[in-house]
Design goal:
22% strand, two-stranded antiparallel sheet, 8-stranded mixed beta sheet, alpha/beta, Rossmann fold, binds ligand PAZ, 309 residues, globular, 14 strands
């Protein structure tokens, strides 16, 4: 068995996995024969430190990239499988997180009848979002699948990829989730909450095998696969992205730096690369970089489907 197979054997599937797998297959079969389907992964995986998990290692990702991109893919006519970290941002509802939504409302007391209204200009903000959301609900073009741990993510990624294999080149994978490179194997994890009176724990992390290889070569060999690369050291960004393309043989790496990811990414191909950016005016106008990323990718995907690349 190869490294990734041994790794999968050691992982427990998430609760309700068989039901989720059935939903994924049914979702792909239900779409019309021309519809393109994109799998968007979003948010960060956790690494449990105990079987009865009280503590875990997490990462910064809020799911902004993934949830915004999912919306733009829906706007471009795609059906979307959104595999996301539970409690991270989701398409549509992301616009109304925290107190933002409450601040859009006002109470109106008319003739002793109390009602709630959307305040003035917020109507204009809400209308297109609600409109798109309702159309997506009606057409059944969005399937949301939550994960928490690295193990959940791995099982769901494989199941979603395999469901997509039946639609060949009409499938795109847009792997924006921040997936841990390290984990604590099940057999190295204590059953119960670690106790401080046992002294400071030594936690030994192991490397997560790269599943992009089986994904590209075996699970969805005809899909348009796009991965993301996040770095904090600019000097490594393009080099590491090219190495990934060479190793896994997929179509494109979208490279970004932690601090500038909201207004600059680099599309890296085996022999070329270019920037996609927002200028000051676009930032002031609240344009999201994901709209540009998705616009560009949808064109590339069309060319790929028609055999032009
Ligand atoms: O979720 P978010 O919008 O805060 O961040 C997005 C991102 C930086 C996680 C994504 O653009 C990305 O680069 N994902 C891959 C990370 C990696 O290198 O594993």
């Amino acid at each position: 068995m190869s490294g990734w197979e041994v790794f999968y054997e050691s992982l427990t599937p998430p609760d309700g996995f068989e039901e989720t797998k059935r939903k994924l297959q049914e979702f792909c079969q239900r779409q019309s024969p021309q519809t393109k389907i994109v799998l968007v992964t979003s948010g960060g995986t956790t690494i449990p430190l105990e079987h009865n998990t009280v503590r875990f290692v997490d990462n910064f990702s809020a799911g902004t990239r993934g949830s915004a991109s999912a919306e733009y893919f829906l706007g471009a006519g795609y059906a979307v499988i959104f595999v996301f970290r539970q409690k991270s941002l989701e398409p549509f509802s992301r616009h109304f997180m925290g107190q933002k939504f409450l601040n859009m409302l006002e109470m109106v007391d008319e003739n002793e009848c109390l009602s709630i209204k959307v305040k003035g200009s917020n109507v204009e903000l809400l209308r297109p979002i609600l409109h798109q959301y309702q159309e997506v609900e009606r057409s059944g073009r969005l399937l949301q699948v939550p994960f928490t741990t690295l193990s959940d993510y791995m099982w769901l990624l494989r199941a979603a990829s395999e469901s997509l294999s039946s639609i060949g080149s009409r499938a795109m994978l847009y792997l924006a989730a921040a997936v841990s490179d390290f984990y604590v194997p099940m057999d190295k994890m204590p059953t119960h909450k670690m106790q401080s009176d046992a002294g400071p724990p030594t936690i030994s992390l192991q490397l997560v095998p790269k599943v992009l290889k089986p994904l590209v070569n075996m699970w969805v060999p005809n899909a348009y696969v796009v991965s993301f690369k996040l770095e904090t050291d600019t000097a490594l960004l393009i080099k590491k992205s090219r190495e990934a393309l060479k190793k896994y043989n997929h179509k494109l790496v979208i490279a970004n730096i932690l601090q500038t990811r909201k207004f600059r990414v680099v599309f890296v191909f085996p022999d070329t690369d270019y920037e996609v950016t927002l200028n000051d005016q676009e930032i002031a106008d609240n344009i999201e970089i994901e709209s540009k990323i998705v616009d560009d990718l949808a064109k590339k995907h069309d060319n790929y489907i028609s055999g032009m690349v």
